[in-house]
UniProtKB/TrEMBL annotation:
InterPro entries: P-loop_NTPase, Stf3_sulfotransferase. This is Sulfotransferase. It holds the Pfam family Sulfotransfer_3. It comes from the Bacteria. It comes from Qipengyuania citrea.
Length: 433
């Protein structure tokens, strides 16, 4: 095993070219200066849609902090500033359309969200695989990738429901994913997906300008600290209402429980349980060396797109601390959860015996697993085709040592019986999250 520090991957030439084009376009007046001012962005979204109701104005608090952190800490390049402006416009426009739909169809907000199954685990601890295996079961409802990218239908969507038009959102998602792959071909290795693949609800939390989505793509430490001190209940309430809207747009039976997952829940379990008091929780666990290394790799491959000023050692330090915070907050919150409402699943058990592990999950859910097995096997085959290359990463490339990670999380691994050993080649090159 080679323990020599190695350099993390560089970004592609595609981003360098895009950045140069935008800079040149600004000089020529083709592109205007970045608009990273809250009031200007709100006005622009309202003008573009002809609407003015953004719903619960709580989102403006994290939005102000995020914008300040972006301007003073993120050190975005021209492509990053351009992308940030587009992202914010997208979120704000969706908030306006969300309220439009609630006014048109007040029955949406009356849809129940009963007994959701929520997967709670650190980034890179196998949550995606478990989520997609459960999503293969037609007894559950789930988000698709295009719905977390664009959760809110446009005003003409009623024509889609009537069979008179086509929903543009899957095509838009496919285009966005294609650009993401051009910007970083490692995207499919780190998180394989497609427009119709089951996907997590992180984008629905980010719809309130809150949460880890923003931290994983930009260096915004003061924003992250602010979020740690703030109650996430308003963001989770908005997320729940977006789920109601998505279920309505899917023409989904409100009797089918949702399968949910995002690492954000590690930080905000109290808010999750306030909004979903009857949630059933599946906690995933993995060797922290792999969690931290993989999370740092994911964040690095995002931030290098948007900024020219990235330090791999700082990325490693940040995600070591973030992982520790996630685990500490999860442990503190779960002490108040009745034992019969939660189950623990080890990453290694899923690696060695996914079927046996899923049978244990289904016993916890009080369901027969057999009707879902064919769909699960189909997902595993599809996943192998989606993932073109293994995700390669190491602690060393982010300035971290195995012993310091082991020591930092010793109590966690002992308490939850997490297998911890010297990483093998297979452990460093995972075929699944």
């Amino acid at each position: 095993m080679n323990d020599q520090p190695i350099q993390p991957p560089r970004r592609t030439r595609f981003i360098d070219i895009a950045d140069g084009v935008i800079r040149g376009g600004r000089k020529l007046g083709v592109f205007g200066p970045p608009r990273l001012d809250k009031d200007a962005l709100l006005e622009e979204a309202a003008a573009a849609t002809g609407l003015n109701d953004f719903g619960d104005r709580w989102f403006e608090k994290p939005f102000e902090v995020l914008l300040d952190s972006v301007k003073h800490e993120a050190q975005l390049n021209a492509a990053g500033e351009f992308s940030a402006t587009k992202m914010f416009h997208h979120v704000l426009r969706d908030r306006l359309y969300t309220q439009m739909w609630f006014k048109r169809h007040p029955e949406i907000l009356a849809r129940p969200l009963k007994n959701p199954v929520v997967i709670v685990g650190p980034m890179r601890s196998g949550t995606t695989r478990l989520h997609r295996l459960l999503a293969a079961d037609q007894r559950f409802a789930h988000l698709r990738s295009f719905e977390t990218i664009s959760p809110v239908p446009r005003p003409e969507f009623e024509q889609v429901l009537a069979g008179e038009a086509e929903d543009f959102r899957p095509k838009l998602a496919a285009r966005i994913l294609k650009v993401a792959r051009l910007a970083n071909p490692r995207t499919l290795s780190i998180h394989p997906t497609g427009a119709y693949e089951p996907e997590e609800e992180l984008g629905l939390v980010a719809a309130s300008m809150y949460g880890m989505k923003w931290e994983a793509q930009w260096n915004v430490p003061s924003y992250a600290e602010w979020c740690h001190e703030e109650s996430a209940i308003p963001a989770y309430r908005h997320m729940a209402n977006l789920l109601r809207l998505i279920g309505w747009s899917q023409q989904e039976s409100s009797l089918r429980p949702w399968i949910l997952k995002t690492p954000q829940h590690m930080l905000d379990l109290p808010a999750l349980l306030e909004v979903f008091p009857d949630a059933r929780l599946i906690f995933t666990h993995r060797d922290p060396k792999q969690v931290v290394g993989s999370a740092a790799s994911l964040a690095w491959n995002q931030t290098i797109i948007y900024s020219d000023h990235n330090d791999p050692a700082q990325t490693g330090h940040d995600w070591l601390g973030k992982t520790a915070t996630m685990i500490a907050r999860m442990r503190a919150a779960r002490d108040a959860i009745p034992r019969e409402r939660m189950i623990d699943v080890q990453y290694e058990d899923m690696e060695t015996d996914w079927r046996g592990t899923m049978e244990r999950v289904y016993r916890f859910l009080d369901l027969e697993m057999e009707p879902a097995v064919a769909g699960m096997e189909d997902y595993l085959d599809r996943s192998a085709r989606l993932k073109r290359h293994p995700h390669r990463y190491s602690l060393a490339e982010f300035g971290l040592r195995e012993d310091e990670v082991n020591e930092r999380f010793a109590d966690y691994t002992e308490t939850f019986g997490i297998p911890v050993g010297a990483p093998t080649a297979a452990a460093r090159t995972r075929l699944a999250k």
